[in-house]
Records
---
Amino acid sequence: MGSYILRRLGYMAVTLLIVTILGYIIIELPPGSYVESEVERLRAQGGNLTQGQIDALYRRYGLDKPEYVRFWLWISAFVRGDFGQAFAYNLPVSQIIFDRLGLTLAFSLSSLVFSWVVAIAAGVYSATHRYTLPDYVIAVLQFIGLAVPNFLLALVLMVFAQNVFHMQVAGLFSSQYVDAPWSIAKVLDLLNHLWIPIIVIGASNTAWLSRVMRANLLDVLNMQYVQTARAKGLTENVVVWKHAFRNAIHPLIMVLGSSLPGIISGETIVAIVLNLPTTGPIYFNALIQKDMYLAGAFLVFLAIALLIGNLGADILLAWVDPRIRYE
Amino acid sequence: MENAVTSAPQLPSAVDEPVSEVGQLSQWTLIRMRFARNRLAMIGMVGLIFMYALVFLGPFVAPNEYTYQNQDYIFGGPSEFTFTGSDGSFGLFMYGTTSVLDSKAFKFIVTKDENMKLPVQLFVKGDPYTLLGVINTDVHLFGVDAASKQRVYLMGADSLGRDMFARTLIGGQISMTIGLVGVAISIVLGSVLGTTSGYFMGLADDVIQRIIEVISSFPTIPLWAALAAALPPISESFTALDRYFLITVVLSFVGWTGLARQLRAKVTAYRTSDFCQAAVAAGSTDRRIIFTHMLPNAASHIIVSAALSIPGMILGETALSFLGLGILPPMVSWGALLRDSQQVSVIIQYPWLLIPGVAVVIAVMLFSFLGDGLRDAVDPYSI
Amino acid sequence: MSDKPGPKAPEQDIVLRVNDLHTYFYTDLGISRALNGVSFDIPVGKVMGVVGESGCGKSVTALSIMRLLPKSSKIIKGDITYFRRPQHNGSAGASDQIKQKSENGQQGFWIDENAGKVQEIRLNDLDPMGPEMRHIRGAELAMIFQEPMTSLNPVYTIGDQISETIMLHQRVNKAEGLRRAIDILEKVGMSNPKLIVGNYPHQLSGGMRQRAMIAMGLSCHPAVLFADEPTTALDVTTEAQILDLMRDLQAQFGTTIVFITHNLGVVAQMCDSVSVMYLGRIIEQTSVDEIFYNPKHPYTSALLNSIPHIGSRSKERLQPIRGVVPDPYSKIVGCPFHPRCNAFMPGKCDKAMPAQTVISPGHNVRCFLYSDEVEE
Ligand SMILES: Nc1ncnc2c1ncn2[C@@H]1O[C@H](COP(=O)(O)OP(=O)(O)OP(=O)(O)O)[C@@H](O)[C@H]1O
Ligand SMILES: [Mg+2]
């Protein structure tokens, strides 16, 4: 197990390096350098820069040096925690990034838990009640869940919440609580604002996972060892949950890694519609305004979060499946 | 994943039909048979044919030209219809509307005029347009007499008084083709890289696998968005069409990885299979083995995974354009149209602005029916 | 005659009686008539072989009796009667259940007054996943499956899987269950059972897995053990070891074994009596000696001619049975073997199905060569 994790860590280091290179390329991609845009931005703000200041900026970002040196400068600064300057906010990127990143991960993880719980329940139910009415209903919901863009779902649920419950669900708090000190009412208000993002972010993942779950469980239920378990005289519940489920969950953990990007993607875009103070709104704004240091740093951090998630999924898999553990 | 609806055991009906020809049918015939028996897949296929016809004949089907701005119909709702004319005659009539200034809210409000009933006619003359890039005409499938100064708005109008129905149809031309073009690019990239990696193994395989891993370790939409943000603004030298094409390239930048992975697995399996060993023993070249043995064998899988990745591409385009990073005005796509409905307050007042979203959902569902059906037909035992 | 087929033995000596069993599968391709009237009696403490080509319904017969058929299939017709002996009635698990049951005021189908007598239980009337059937399965009727590689759950240790059955039916705690699991593993000739209980299936060889399966099957001392081709997937040496082991254990425990195989050599080695199946029917049924020295049905003879046997002249050619088994979806008029039969009598064999007829004590056959009786 230890060597397995070590090997995975090694792979991860390589991937991480390439991820940062790709992140850097993306920062470099937009036409015109960021110094040009910064100069333009500063000029637009009325500051008149001297040629000396401009040259200093060029030197600061090493724009006079070849690509690989610049990459080295960027990456070494990155490792030291200096991610550059967010132009639009006139703040170091690091100041903007961390609490927002934390909230993004918090939403993503809650949605992940939500989608796992619902998907497992729905998947197991529909696999064990194949061709019954609830199975068809679940199938319809799955198709819808996969077909509705999440921002659209967010909009529809918001309209629904407003029209039916007269609730304003955008943001994390209702307006009267935003600056209020913490209280039970404020916590309740927060919870009221959390369910829509969590459902919306998790919806398509839930639909997808429950399909995977159903298909896998159906496969596993055809396995000889399930028959063996029945032949022992176990109840159907024990057969399904102890013998079949434990094997069917395994592909689900394997796709855990690949479902994370979708969830984080979903979070970033849903955050815009729901006005959540997470990475999404800042990230896309940064892209539109070509604030590439900010955007690049976010992108690389999201990728790192995903890599860690994948590692976690692999370890979980090894823990669940003895065949991998003893490899 | 087996299909939920169609493979239900048909209890008594099939009693006296021994199926004995099964063994003699070719692989493709079998696939076609299984596909044709899958009701959802057929719905998907027929529905998509219908939708493509609708969007490409859009300028003809819609009563208005999609860019026509009607100052008297700003945020006007869907037209209302009745079956009895003012003279009591039977037929389909549209109520006329008038636009009045609400002095309190200081905006124009479109109100129904109960007394104005205009007969809806087929093949009426209206805004001129070019159909399918060649036919110049001004005949629309249906509408009301142009002389009445009234227009039919099946799905209401947007903030500039443009016909949402026409815009949804025209937007479909982009949204429903972007996935196809994206998938075509993905197929080329995925086949080449997947086959290379599976067939030659070694260093090429390592490098390609690593690239795939890196690309899939980015969250898709943010990555797409970053790439799309790198596209230059629309200008003389960089037309909207160029942008459209490059957006498809951006979408397939992520899309090819899935296909490459699957193909690699297939090709690795084929490499050790008898027919391939036989070909090697017979002295076939690598190229010959790949093109005459492996790709034809993997063709069905390529088609399936292509079909299954179209919905993701459509949703991706929608999300990008919704964010303002994909298709930009004056081009329209479903996502770009949905940009008008970012505010809940707007949707609550003018819910018809969400109609392009309904179109997205329907198109994506039909594509997934089709894709699932193809997959079940090709390989009934896969997940 | 046809209503009471099978070697007639006094009921006291019978543990399982199957009468006119029909099991159909409902599939996309139509109805597959897997069993079309299977009848046999299994005498207590004997080994009955079931032979036949692949697809003739051997496994389905065992699964029908165990009530383990998939949902797509159904027992259309027929009876399965299990004659429960007192020692099984009194087995630890069962008696606990009886007490619980009568306290609940529910009508237990095993009633205390019956202790000491042989009880008749009609398995086909029980709910396949209901409590009665579950108490019988694993404890009184056990089954070993065709593929040892896939019969064990990959994510649990061997010890967990064997002790699970023991804990379930003998009402003991985990430690005791594990102890008994080690015992039984030792009995099936597993070296170092203490280590094996902690192993996962993928760490064991095919032969060891099959031993583990046998241990699991025998762990509650069942009345009948169905062994569905337990050695097909193994190499010849291992096969011989496993067969020896089963023979030994059978002698030791007195378990009745239904030994399903397509290998007549294995039958000769293992079994007391044999049922030959063809397309969902038993076409000949008799003792092992009779089958080898006095086969009656043309199919049995053909089957025997298709395998080499020691002592045959080397020049003698093996004769494969011509043609192939018809698929079970089509309905064949007449004897299902007639298209492949060397003794085919036109106008007779292709018109009606011969009935199962006793031609000498303990020997019955379905063939118009021996009787004109027709199955209704
Ligand atoms: N799950 C199933 N679905 C449909 N048909 C089935 C199923 N299981 C068995 N059958 C049908 O029942 C018939 C008998 O199958 P069975 O498994 O009993 O054969 P068998 O005699 O055990 O053969 P083998 O020696 O290959 O194990 C087969 O012809 C098959 O068509
Ligand atoms: Mg079998």
---
Amino acid sequence: MKYLTLIWAALLRSKTRTVLTLMSVLAAFLLFGLLDSVRVAFNSGGSETNTNRLVVSSKLSITQMLPYSLLSRIESTPGVQETVYAAWFGGIYQDQKNFFPNFSVGPGYLDMYPEYVIDPAQVKAWNADRTGAIVGESLANKFGWKIGDTIPLQATIFPQRDGSNNWPLVLRGTFRLEDSKRKGEENQLIFHWKHFDEANLYVNGQVGWYIVKLDSMEQATGVAQAIDALSQNSSHETKTQTEQAFNQSFAKQFADVGLIVTGIMSAVFFTLLLLTGNTMAQTVRERIPELAVLKTLGFTNRAVLVLVLAESVLLILLGGVLGMLIANMIIPAFSSASGGIVALSSIPTQTWALGLALMTGIGLITGASPAMRAKRLNIVDALAGR
Amino acid sequence: MSSLVTIRQLTKTYHRGPEKIQVLRGIDLDISRGDFVAVMGPSGSGKTTLLNLIGGLDAPGGGEVEVDGQRIDQLKDGQLANWRNGHVGFVFQFYNLMPTLTAQKNVELPLLLTKLRSSQRKRNVEVTLQLVGLADRKSHRPNELSGGQQQRVAIARAIVSDPTLLICDEPTGDLDRHSAEEILDLLQILNREHGKTIIMVTHDPKAAEYANRTLHLDKGELMAHLDKGEKVDAPVASY
Ligand SMILES: Nc1ncnc2c1ncn2[C@@H]1O[C@H](COP(=O)(O)OP(=O)(O)OP(=O)(O)O)[C@@H](O)[C@H]1O
Ligand SMILES: [Mg+2]
């Protein structure tokens, strides 16, 4: 601790340079904080809860649909308690940028998700209306929809039989989720698969995926294999996986965020390495006589090495933590601007941990070579300016 | 008086490419505890090199250097650093203070390596700054101080951990006559009233007069030991 003044003094030696370096570190970690939070949100699929649900989808691609006829065969697989199904609709409301997930669902869908809190009377009203829809509270609030309103959903993939893209749906109820981490799911709209199946021009008797509730999760592997065996060697082979795994692959359909984040951040951190590496090399070069004096006073070679390393790590930590704190502040706005794709209220712990590890790593790497130079410094030569 | 510094057959050779420069050619020297020794000689005669070897900043090519019973030529790098911290104080021509630290923090530097607690370090620094007459400038940075004041901060830094030996390489070389006299008075007080053993390199015969005796170095050899008041007309080659 007592050496902190010494490290501080070194950083304050050239204030302008330190501030400029801090700013670039700050900018890099601001970006990292945002992007990596998005990556974590995407990959967690919103759900980390221990549900006893499996999702059955096409082995080829999530966008590939499955025959409705598979339902009864899945239902009769041992270990399966209940089965429902859903089909992606991909409609838009007014504008492409108002993106939110919307899909049609079979009967019993809401029973499958007891964590979706909804008034039973609303469920009843929905079931009684062929063109009825249910949305999450966040979505209803966002567009100011009230129960009884007609939502003019526009098809992008599935037109009506008459060729029109208009799918007017009547709002019959709203649900909410207590788990703050899953608030993103409140951006969904669901309507009846029966209506979708009868009214759309292209597909008939097809569902997007089945959701299977098990008697117990311990049987998951066996049941998943049994279900996939049902369609083996057919034109519609299935892949049965846990809900979380499914959500991840579903998100990847839009973008492999992990890959994008890694790509962007590699470029950013590479630049940062060069920049701070150069700064550190320069500050040590300028401080050669001062470092020699420290050695004269009895600082060992190792102590001087540690001082320079600490200085480098501190510089990156300062800028980095500041950048991530700013990212933390703007994340809610960022999240709501994403239209529910990213549901985040703050930087996840995982991102903080990775960020701090990166800061320390970058600090050590950029400090390594100047620190070695400081360590090897010959007192007599340095004092004589040789 | 017992001998504090004992030097026997000390040599130092620098290699510059294929060329060998023999800077010190077998120095024998004894310095008693409480002595104040001036070292004079032409530029390049090896004065700084001699001081560096006595202060453990550099390793000799051959011979022995013993300070306060410790053969410092036999110490390893890390041990030598620790030894310097406890036993020698250095004062340089250009002060060599940390430009971003206040006078107080500069003087505290050697104490950071000791086990002293923060409050004790502060007290020692205060007392030392008082001793060099800079108590009122403790929060000033080097660029807010005159050359003479900066050198007094440097002296405070050199004596704050109460070293056995004070090594000064042209401490007045960069100062005007008046400031130089103040510094020399200060060194004399440290020597006479506080019992510090001082070795000082200088080009200024007036500065050397403050010392108890003057050594003359020429081409890496000691020419004569003179006690105060003696005068050298010519190098005593036979010595
Ligand atoms: N590290 C080194 N490498 C090569 N030559 C050196 C080195 N250090 C000192 N020398 C040479 O050794 C000789 C003595 O140097 P030193 O600094 O001891 O002289 P000095 O008496 O202190 O001179 P000055 O009065 O100019 O300070 C000089 O010729 C110098 O160039
Ligand atoms: Mg010299």
